[in-house]
Write a structure and sequence with these properties.
- By secondary structure, the chain is mostly helical.
- It is about 75% helix and about 5% strand.
- The chain contains 10 helices and 3 strands, in the order E-H-H-E-H-H-H-E-H-H-H-H-H.
- It has helices spanning about 25-50, 60-85, 95-125, 130-135, 140-165, 180-185, 195-225, 230-255, 265-290, 295-310; strands at about 10-15, 90-95, 175.
- It has a 3-stranded mixed β-sheet with strand order 2-1-3.
- It is globular, with a radius of gyration of 22 Å.
- The N and C termini lie far apart (about 70 Å).
Length: about 300
Amino acid sequence: MVKKNYTAVTEFILLGLTDRAELQPVLFVVFLVIYLITAIGNVSMILLIRSDSRLHTPMYFFLSHLSFVDLCYATNVTPQMLVNFLSKSKTISLTGCFIQFHLFIALVITDYYMLTVMAYDRYVAICKPLLYGSKMSRCVCISLVAISYIYGFANGLVQTILMLHLFFCGPNEINHFYCADPPLLVLACSDTYVKETAMFVGAGTNLTCSLAMILTSYIFIFTAILRIRSADGRRKAFSTCGSHLTAVTVFYGTLFCMYLRPSSEASVEQGKIIAVFYIFVSPMLNPLIYSLRNKDVKKAIRNVIQKKLFDK
C-alpha cells in the first residue's frame, strides 16, 4: 500500500549511457552520425521503392514499411538522447516518458511482425509461385501491414495503461537513455507484479511467436530450395531470402535477451548495451543490408544515379 503523504513524480531524469562528462560530446557525435545514416538510409529506401516501378512488388512494399518503422523507433529515442548528451538537465516529463514508452513498445512489436510478414511473402514466392499473385494481392499486402501496425500499437497501449496504474513517488532517476520497462519498474513505489508479469508474457510471447513463424517459413523455403535441381536455380531462390535472413539475425540476435531478464540494476546495465544494438545498429544496417545484398535494389540505385548524371 502506498503512503498518502508521498509526492507523485512529475518528471524523470534519464541517466543515459554513462555519467562521464568527457565522453558526452564524443557520444553526441557518434550517435548523431549513426542517426543521420539511419535517417538518410531508410528515407532513401522508401523513396527508391516508391519511385521505381520495378520495385512495386509485395516484397518491396513490406520493405518500405520496415524502413518506415525502423526510422520511427530510432527517431522516438535519438533526439532526446542527443539533447541529453549536451544538457546538464537530462529531464523528461512524465507524459513525455510514457509517450516514448508507448511508441517504443508499439514500434518494436510492429517490427517483429513486419519481419514475419516478409518471411511469409518469401515462403509464398518460393513454395507456391503459381499462387503468388492471388495470395499476395495488393489487398492482402495492405491487410497484413495494417494488422502488424494495429497489433503492435494495441500491445503498446496495454503495456502503457498497466504502467500508468503504477505510482512513482521518488527517486526519479531512470538508469537508461530512454523510458524502458525494467528501469521504470525499479522506480515504482506500488506493486509491480501485474505489470512485470505482463511485460514478460507479452515480450516473450511476441518474440517467440514471431520468430517461430519466421523459422517455420524458412524450413519450408529451404526444403523447397533443396528440391530445385539446378545450382543456378537454388542460388537465385536463396538470394531473394539472404537480405531478410541477415536482417532477422541482427534484429532478433539482440532482442531475444532484452525483456527476458529480471528488472535488477545489473540487468538494466546489460540492457543499455543490448538496446544500443537494436535501437541504433539494426535500423542503420537494414538499408545497407538490402542495398548491398539485393540485385533489384542495387540496379534501382544505379538507374537513379545514371538518371541524375544524364540529366546534368
